[in-house]
Amino acid sequence: MKKKYGLVSCIAIACLAACSTSHNDMHRKDIQLITVAPGHFHAALVQKTMYPQVDSVVHVYAPEGSELQAHLALIDQYNTRDTDPTRWDEVVYSGPDFLKKMLAERKGNVVVLAGNNRDKIDYITQSIDAGLNVLADKPMAINPAGFSKLVDAFAKAEENNVLLYDIMTERYEINTMLQKELSQIPDFFGELEKGTAENPAITKESVHHFFKEVSGKPLVRPTWFYDTQQQGEGLVDVTTHLVDLVQWESFPGEIIDYEGDIELITARRWPTVLTPAQFQRSTGQQEIPGFLTEVVNQDGNLAVFANGEINYKLKGVHAKVSVIWNFEAPQGTGDTHYSIMRGTYANLIIKQGAEESYKPVLYVESTGARDEAAFETALAQAMDQLENTYNGLGFERLAPGRYRISVSPSLVTTHEEHFAQVAEKYLGFLHAGAMPEWEVPNMIAKYYLTTKALTEAETVAAP
Q1: pLDDT of 20-50, one tens digit each?
Q2: SS (H, E, C) the chain
Q3: For 109, phi and psi rounded to 5 degrees?
Q4: Domain chopping of the chain, boundaries
Q5: CATH fold for the domain made of 171-421+445-457
Q6: What separation in angstroms does the CA of 36 have from each of 98, 120, 208, 239?
Q7: What is the rounded distance in angstroms from the CA atom of residue 313 to the CA atom of residue 201?
Q8: What pLDDT shows up at residue 13?
Q9: What is the DSSP letter of 223?
Q10: What is the pLDDT of residues 278-306, one digit of tens each?
Q11: pLDDT tens digits, residue range 309-332?
Q12: Superfamily of domain 2-166
């Protein structure tokens, strides 16, 4: 069934008619988006803003149901907000043959994917085979079979001259950006340590929550979100962000050969236990569906393998990434992140706990390899160097050899805003007709590590 969701008001049309760019012109843009099976709210976040080169008409292909309605409700919320409303015009086809219909109609040239991760890799491969560009939410692969398909998809994308890219929002968090930048100033940071398995040179830890708010409203999770065969385990889901950041920060612009540059040391996983009441609260469903029977323990609770840790070496550098999922954050808090990069002269540490009011803050600590005066001088010089790019930086001495980096509010963007930044980067790649040469091999390396770690962790008894 095809339905027209006209979300542009008569007032908006009249306003557009009075402007130099007519409403009809809004429908003749270089990029036309196609949204397929938007089972995750990240699909809507790509459309939280408008883009000059993107057509305002978006064709949506999905099975009928609550996931589609939730997606359209978010788009409508963005279209009707008081401040800077969007003007998306959603044309929806809903039916069991939605993917076949999309491939037959080809109503656009960029497919946006965010939903069931078991099905996502097949949506990716079929879209690429059809000569369509793909912007996909993470993870693009959740097991070794999916990884093999992904490698083939990248090869086919090159053959068809289209671009396949995943949504790595964490590259746009300002403290992470500054951690990367400072690590690339040898006179201040020195060289990245090699570390050990017990004391890695790079550690990244992320804490997430099943129940939270998105765009000011409680998030309703689909029931399949708790099925690791569909969503993927923690080791192959959120860890994609952490592995990506390790690569992006430590070896910027360098190609990573997954067969030669990565050595998996250990991997482990453990479950998050949720009560039936918590499941009901987060999904809105009264009953636990049959496909989740295998994860229901003897107490009647769900034991979901949402947590994991990977210890590995990247180009000889020891790194550790870990992800933890709790049900709900304490009042006034949210998802948190911890990260450290250890250099010859300085350690760069991001914390997001109570001391930081649960907002990410970057700290700089001396390793003691130079005296404090020399260290502070080097820090001041490094900050001056970054000021040319990031206007509004400062630092505060907290204790001998320990400093807090301050950032102007103008440099801070929210997690939801990062989706537009990723989309704009991708649109730039489409305009150029290519991505940096390191992006594809490094995406492959990332998914190689996460899926290999899953295979390894499955052989280790959970605690």
Answers
A1: 333 344 445 799 999 999 999 999 999 999 9
A2: CEEEECCCCHHHHHHHHHCCCCCCHHHCCCECEEEECCCCCHHHHCCCCCCCCECCEEEEEECCCHHHHHHHHHHHHHHHCCCCCCCCEEEEEECCCHHHHHHHHCCCCEEEECCCHHHHHHHHHHHHHCCCEEEECCCCCCCHHHHHHHHHHHHHHHHHCCCEEECCHHHHCHHHHHHHHHHCCHHHHCCECCECCCCECEEEEEEEEEECEECCEECCCCHHHHCCCCCCCHHHCCHHHHHHHHHHHHCCCCCCCCCCCEEEEEEEEEEEEECHHHHHHHHCCCCCCHHHHHHECCCCCEEEEEEEEEEEEECCEEEEEEEEEEEECCCCCCCEEEEEEEECCEEEEEECCHHHCCCCEEEEEECCCCCHHHHHHHHHHHHHHHHCCCCCEEEEEEECCEEEEEECHHHCCCHHHHHHHHHHHHHHHHHHCCCCCCHHHHHHHHHHHHHHHHHHHCCCCCC
A3: -130, 0
A4: 2-166, 171-421+445-457
A5: Dihydrodipicolinate Reductase; domain 2 (3.30.360)
A6: 8, 9, 26, 24
A7: 10
A8: 32
A9: G
A10: 999 999 999 999 999 989 999 999 999 99
A11: 999 999 999 999 999 999 988 776
A12: NAD(P)-binding Rossmann-like Domain (3.40.50.720)
CA distances from 355 to 351, 376, 404, 441 (A): 9, 23, 12, 39
| Helix, strand, coil share (%) of the chain residues, nearest 5 | 40, 25, 35
In the predicted structure, residue 87 carries a pLDDT above the cut 70: yes
Calpha distance 306→208 (Å, rounded): 10
Tens-digit pLDDT profile for residues 120-132: 999 999 999 999 9
The pLDDT confidence band at residue 15, using thresholds 50, 70 and 90, is: very low
Asked whether this chain's domains 2-166 and 171-421+445-457 adopt the same fold, the reply is no
pLDDT at 147: 98
Tens-place pLDDT, residues 218-270: 788 899 999 999 999 999 999 999 999 999 999 999 999 999 999 999 999 99
pTM score over 0.70: yes
**pLDDT interval class at 6 (50, 70, 90):** very low
- What pLDDT is attached to residue 11? 31
